[in-house]
Amino acid sequence: MKRDSRLSGALHVLLHLAEADAPMTSERLAKAMATNPVVVRRVMAGLRDEGLVASEKGHGGGWTLTCNLSKTTLRDVYQALGHPPLFGMGHRNEASQCAVEQAVNAALGDALDAAEAVLLDRFGNVTLADLSRDFHERMVARPDLGKADSYADH
User: Which domain of life is it from (predicted)?
Assistant: First the structure.
């Protein structure tokens, strides 16, 4: 099953933008993420609509970070992406007439709802500033990892 990596990708892009001293094009961000610029633009559209980033067209244009790293949480970014599914597990048949399957669905549904609540609560307690700090600590500990804007090696 293919995993939904939009949240991971969006966080990756936001941290690159936080390190950038000028707007970054979709092409440059795509190179950093080893993906297609169209993928970057799709992710960025939701972030722009929620006020986390801005875009400027033309020469010298590109994407810029507009949110406060200390106030923007992983949950904010998750919500900006339209609340993608957190888990790949689900019910075999949502509207079953079988009492056994209804019991299974109820138990799984309760467990998945509880797990989702815990995960979203955790997302709400981690800011982009926390991720940035972790990135910088990793760079100090492992300078061989390369500079944040060294997109050819990233």
Answer: Bacteria
Which pLDDT belongs to residue 149? 46
CA 58 to chain centre: 26
* Widest pairwise Cα distance in the chain: 63
- Topology (CATH level 3) of domain 6-90+127-145: Arc Repressor Mutant, subunit A (1.10.10)
Question: Please, which pLDDT band fits residue 4 given cuts at 50, 70 and 90?
Answer: confident
Three-class SS of residue 63? strand
Q: 16: Cβ–Cβ under 8 A, 6 or more apart, which residues?
A: 24, 29, 32, 148, 149
Residue 69 contacts residue 11 (beta carbons within 8 Å): no
The pLDDT value given to residue 107: 94
Domain limits of the chain?
6-90+127-145
- For residue 110, what are its two tokens? 């309760």
Mean pLDDT of 65-78: 97
Residues in Cβ contact with 51 at an 8 Å cutoff, skipping those fewer than 6 apart: 66, 67
